[in-house]
Amino acid sequence: xxxxxVNLGDRGYPIYIEPNFKRLGxxxxxxxxxxKMLIVxxxxxxxxxxxxxxxxxxxxxxxxxxxxIQAGEINKSLDTVRxxxxxxxxxxxxxxxxxxxxxxxxxxxxxxxxxATYMRGIPFIQIPTSLMAQADSSIGxxxxxxxxxxxxxxxxxxxxxxxxxxxxxxxxxxxxxxxSGMAEVIKHGLIRDSDFYEYxxxxxxxxYSFDENTLAYMTKMxxxxxxxxxxxxxxxxxxxxILNFGHTIGHAIECVSGxxxxxxxxxxVGMVGAYKLAHKMGMTDExxxxxxxxxxxxxxxxxxxxxxxxxxxxxxxFSDKKVKDDKLNFVLPxxxxxxxxxxxxKEAPIREVLxxxxxx
Length: 360
Ligand SMILES: NC(=O)c1ccc[n+]([C@@H]2O[C@H](COP(=O)([O-])OP(=O)(O)OC[C@H]3O[C@@H](n4cnc5c(N)ncnc54)[C@H](O)[C@@H]3O)[C@@H](O)[C@H]2O)c1
Ligand SMILES: [Zn+2]
Fold this sequence. Notes:
The chain has 360 residues and is an alpha/beta fold. The chain has 2 domains: 172 residues, Rossmann fold; 182 residues, Dehydroquinate synthase-like - alpha domain (Dehydroquinate synthase-like, alpha domain, Up-down Bundle). The chain has 14 helices and 12 strands. The strands form 3 sheets. Strands 1-2-9-6-5-3-4 form a 7-stranded mixed sheet, sandwiched between helices. Helix 4 links the parallel strand 5 and strand 6. Helix 6 packs antiparallel against helix 7, helix 11 runs antiparallel to helix 12 and helix 13 packs across helix 14. 49% of the residues are buried. The structure holds nicotinamide-adenine-dinucleotide and zinc ion.
């Protein structure tokens, strides 16, 4: 269907966008991956896609094993990583062995971290099955786990050897998870490409009915936008921070909700917040704020998080890692398709926006 690449010199890799798993074996052979393979997947994804992947990989004449983890962010922990190490030792995996992450962002982040650290690094591949993972987390090499209640506290930058996306895997994804992933897709348009934003807004019905051509185009654009940002700033020294658009407020809401709201839902509210703040600062007009809200609603995403305490959300933002010298840093929009990274000195407009968002 399509093959893209992330150009990072000797850490570069291909991204395959396919309608099934039939080219997985060939993709691995082309990447010269032929050692023992351990597929890490979660108990939801296993029942749908594990057998297909095992079949394709066994075609490489290699030993393929499977390790199933329990689904859920709560299991994105060092304990889960330890179990993967144990399994690798049991299999006598060596430095040519390959870890295969088959699943959503949780599986990808955990497996990537295990790959980054087992024997100081073994190859791994990403087979993302959620929209969040296909659009965002499988590309770019951020791996890691949560630690003592803090998200992504322990981790490593470690790029996969390839990313293989089967767009039809989205068909079994729970509806709420699909919509949550759509927030990151819309984010890509808003930060880098107004045409892509328009395309998504006009084709949301086709996406939600899994039209192959639409999904393939959307995936290609996601990977191009994310890949391009990563190519320019692999380790988040600057530009890569724009991918955090909507995340300063979004992450605080996620924590205050006690993780009852999904990540993408919180990012959706956070993006509305960023537009409202940009409007208050004279960077974006009111019509644009309304348009963004309408398109997020149309995609089935929330634009408010009612019933939360605005002060709590504000305090949580200050404990966030984006705070420098007691000032809050935001990625703010200049219209549609361009954002800038800036420090907001005054508390008042931020508090006003939060009150509008959480409705207190
Ligand atoms: N590394 C990065 O750059 C990056 C970027 C964004 C998010 N993340 C991380 O990704 C995680 C969120 O990812 P996620 O939303 O994919 O969560 P997830 O992995 O928990 O998947 C969501 C749910 O969908 C299920 N699922 C996945 N694919 C399925 C399919 N095709 N059919 C049926 N069920 C399926 C999973 O079992 C899970 O229950 C968070 O931990 C976040 O921190 C990482
Ligand atoms: Zn995100």
